[in-house]
Amino acid sequence: MTYTEETTLFPCEGDPLVGILAKPAIPADTGVVVIVGGPQYRAGSHRQFVLLSRALAVAGYAVLRFDYRGMGDSSGAQRDFESASRDVGAAIDQLQRGVPSARNVVLWGLCDGASAALLYCHETQDPRVTGLCLLNPWVRSEASLAKTQVKHYYTQRLRQKEFWVKLLSGKVALSALSGYAAKLRQSKGNANQQKNGEGTFQQRMAKAWHGFSGRILLVLSGDDYTAKEFVEHTQTDVVWKNYQDHARLKRVDIAGVDHTFSSASSRKLAEDTTLHWFAAPGN
Hints:
This protein is α/β, with parallel strands linked by helices.
């Protein structure tokens, strides 16, 4: 299908935001807003968001990728994913102004862009959002990072014969063991966080996840600590309990790819996974 691309300028609380709208000749009734993880702009790492938007447009889906306030070409004070909901809402408004047939909207986000999508849903319960494509969602805390490092680095390292040979020969300092002990202590901190309320951004993400009635695509990279942290966190935080039982969840684990799908082949895998999910019945 043919499509056009156009630069679009739209307001958010008095500041102009810049986006690129990919518009198919005959757009579907579902459009996509790509939420950029930070700090970066609407092209994405390795031009991933440019290429994704064009692939979706060829398939018939209008796509708006844009810069938050204070990022890229957009004006205003710089902000992070926890304070981007007004920007996301403005982008949805602009997508529907540019493509009125896009009555339903899917939010597509990588890393803290995925987190921002869930936080937007938590804050707004926007009925226009009927789907979420979440790649390697960001749930980092000191405890979650330490827990992931203990499980996926330190524990494996301690099982290697060469580590102990180097330690006994003096080639590895005792500080390596003390570092492991420190990470182990930090990893226990998450239990306290679970008991202290539900106000963290990770817990707000979980509430949005459980309360979302639309479809969710969760994509996790095999060679990515952020993805591993997400898995570890959701297995231990009580607010995330049974997240995998969401009635409309499709989880895809892609082995051998990194956080940003940096190779052409891994980028294509992310694109194809997204397109197959869009084409599945019930979208």
